[in-house]
Design a protein that fits this description.
about 160 residues, 5 strands, about 20% strand, single chain
């Protein structure tokens, strides 16, 4: 079964990578889809985020890295996929994802959303927190892979 794990991945975190691998292990095939969101100011360009994901995930079987813009439901139909995976770290995440999942289920032919809970070691990991730590030249190893952390510190002014 093929599923889509979509997000901004700005930047990709260790928590994202955990969800990607667990989704692949459960469903067999995961399309990691980077959202091109022109309304949002991003730290990294879509091309940079795609490069990070391709470098980190390499040629792993059952994982495809792609980018899309527009509605996720339309992208899912384009990819002949009927299931979306979302990661949840907290009840707050669930509350914000619930409405989106319901809308995606009822829009057009609809797609189902499956939630995977964050692993214990990644419950606190977020792109926002990683950016904050990078700004103050903190240790990013808990949050992001090394290549991403180095790029973040370069962009945000932290020292390596």
């Amino acid at each position: 079964m093929k599923v889509i794990y979509a997000g901004s991945f700005d930047p990709v975190t260790n928590g994202h990578l955990d969800i990607i691998h667990r989704a692949r292990n459960i469903f067999g095939e995961v399309i990691v889809a980077v959202l091109k969101n022109t309304r949002k100011t991003s730290l990294f360009s879509v091309e940079e985020r795609l490069e990070f994901l391709k470098t980190l995930l390499g040629e792993e079987e059952g994982i495809e890295v792609d980018a899309f813009e527009g509605l996720l439901v339309d992208y899912a139909r384009e990819k002949d996929c009927s299931t979306i995976v979302r990661g949840l770290r907290s009840a707050d995440d669930y509350l914000s994802e619930y409405s989106l999942a319901m809308a995606n289920m009822h829009y057009k032919d609809g797609v189902e959303t499956v939630f995977l809970l964050a692993s214990n070691e990644h419950l606190f990991v977020s792109s926002t927190l990683a950016k904050e730590v990078a700004t103050f030249d903190g240790d990013l190893s808990l949050f992001v892979p090394d290549i991403v952390g180095q790029a973040m510190k370069k962009k945000l002014g932290g020292k390596l």
